[in-house]
Amino acid sequence: MKIIGDKQIKIDTALAKEIAERSGENVFLCYQCKKCASGCPSREFMTSTPTQLMRYVQLGMIDEAMKQNTIWYCLSCETCSTRCPQDIDIAHVVDTIRIMVQEKKIKADTKNSRLFNWLWMTILRYMGRMYEIGLTGALNLFTGKPFKDMSLGMKMIKKGKLKLFPSFKKPLETKKMFDRAKRLSK
Amino acid sequence: MKIAYYPGCSLHSTGVEYDISTRKVCDVLGIELTEVKDWICCGSSPAHQCDELMSVALPAKNLALVAQTGDFKEVCAPCASCYSRLKGAQYKLADENLKKDVEQVIGTKYPEDITVLHMLDVIAKKIGVEAIEEKVQRSLGGMKIASYYGCLMTRPPKITGKDSYENPTDMDSVLEVLGAEPVDWNLKTFCCGASFALTQTDVVLELTKKILADAEASGAEAISVGCPLCHANLDGRQQQINEKFNTDFNIPIFYFTELMGLAFGIGAKELGVFKHLTEVEDFLKERALL
Ligand code: SF4
Ligand code: SF4
To answer: Which domains does chain B have, with CATH numbers?
Structure first.
């Protein structure tokens, strides 16, 4: 008979625990039925399926869970969370991992999402409402594709679908909200 | 009927015709919309992808602004994403600890007694198809339409409270009394990729192409939507899709409120339908709806 020590069969649950604390979701309820993977519209783009992602988290496989593109291809369409027979809010688990990657400044294949989120929240912080031209322009500039969607944008401006200038709605108010939230989460 | 109205950022920009047609249609139906005073962005996808607390605080702030706007117990949002963020925040705010934090962030009390509705809920559920039918002046003449609900109008049901989320039918029922013929199709609630519109456009083109192709294969002449983000993808990216995949889609994408307005006899121009990027002029002319 082979002798297996305790250490060899130990699972690192730190990742699952942190996710549970942050989101209230228990990944250990997942029994790998693959319902989430089958219905995921973004599955064809992901390195791993949402089902595999759940397993990675169960096993504490940090690199696979946090550094692959899987979470960054999630569209937040909520199909998985709607259908999971174990009532796991998978989309919320994905969001939680994304937040952890951003907070901990982990290097990962984020598909420009980190930049996009930061730009969006910065505009909100100072303007209160979205300013689409500013957002797109800054994103294209930072990603080195200054002319992306240019002709689409011009058409939209012609049709009066894009504001040329931002509208400031209670800018101080939103900035205060962001500041208070930052203080609270410290 | 009086109700608070939260247009959201898109209805002041890319989805301006949705705002225009919604207001016109509500006028006809006797719904008095009061825009929430000084509303701010709901945070949309980026907020829940990067900051859990703010993703709840931003919608909560807007709900507080609803209460400050007047004595409103209901607020409606035409954008599926805004609707989902407002509803989702309410769901999470049942947690007392989170509520305490959020109240501290927004600097005011969070009002618990406000019901959040999507514009389609107001039209289909609160007004009802009988009252809509009474206002129809010109029938849509059997126009074959695929009603597209997308993701967040119905999902996840524990947040939206919707009972038919895999095969919703509210929009179909409305279109039917307008004289249209809703088609049976597969991708009613499939995702168009909205949250990736700017960052991963390739994904959006792929998903949107599937939706257009399925609608067309099911015999639809047009698609009806209830979300400015879905509209921006389905309407605005058709040309890019055609270029990328060598297809020749030319499917008019209407907001359901525009179709209602047309059937109520309101002029196409007044409803803002010429703001679409996929032209609808010939389509409407052929059907005597101009
Ligand atoms: S649907 Fe739920 S139980 Fe099934 S594999 Fe996905 S997460 Fe696991
Ligand atoms: S929410 Fe994300 S993981 Fe779940 S089905 Fe949609 S795209 Fe896939």
So the answer is: 2-119 (1.20.1050.140), 136-286 (3.40.50.11810)
Q: Which residues contact B177 (CB under 8 A, 6 or more apart)?
A: B129, B132, B133, B136
- How many interchain CB pairs under 8 A, A with B? 156
What residues contact A53, with CB distance under 8 A and at least 6 apart?
A64, A65, A70, A71, A93, A94
| Cα B241 to Cα A156: distance, rounded to the nearest angstrom | 17
Determine the straight-line distance between the first and last CA of chain A, rounded to whole angstroms. 52
Domain ranges of chain A: 2-103, 113-185
| Domain A2-103, architecture per CATH | Orthogonal Bundle (1.10)
Q: Are B41 and A128 in contact (CB under 8 A)?
A: yes
């059907």: which residue's tokens? B287
Which of A18, A23, A74, A82 best tests the B interface by mutation, with the highest count of B CBs <10 A?
A82
A70 lines ligand 2 (CB under 6 A): no
User: Chain B neighbours among A 153-182 (CB < 8 Å)?
Assistant: 155-156, 159-163, 167, 169-170, 173-174, 176-178, 180-181
Residue A114's nearest CA partner among B189, B17, B92, B199 is B199
Helix extents (H) in chain B: 16-29, 44-50, 52-69, 80-92, 96-106, 119-121, 129-135, 157-160, 170-177, 201-217, 228-236, 238-245, 256-263, 268-271, 281-286
| Cis peptide bond upstream of B252, omega within 30 | no
Mean pLDDT, range B124-138, rounded to an integer? 97
C-alpha Rg value of chain B to the nearest Å: 19
Ligand 1 atom 4, closest CA? A33
Give this prediction's pTM: 0.94
Written as one letter, the residue type at B171 is M
Show the low-confidence residues of chain A (pLDDT under 50): none
Task: Go through chain A and tell me how many residues it has.
Answer: 186
Q: Which 8-state DSSP code applies to residue B36?
A: P
Contact predicate A76/B48, CB 8 Å: yes
Tell how far CA A151 is from the center of its chain: 29
| Tens-place pLDDT, residues A31-63 | 999 999 999 999 999 999 999 999 999 999 999
ipTM rounded to 2 decimals: 0.94
Task: Give the number of other Cβ atoms within 10 Å of residue A182's Cβ.
Answer: 13
What are the structure tokens assigned to A155, written together? 């058409």
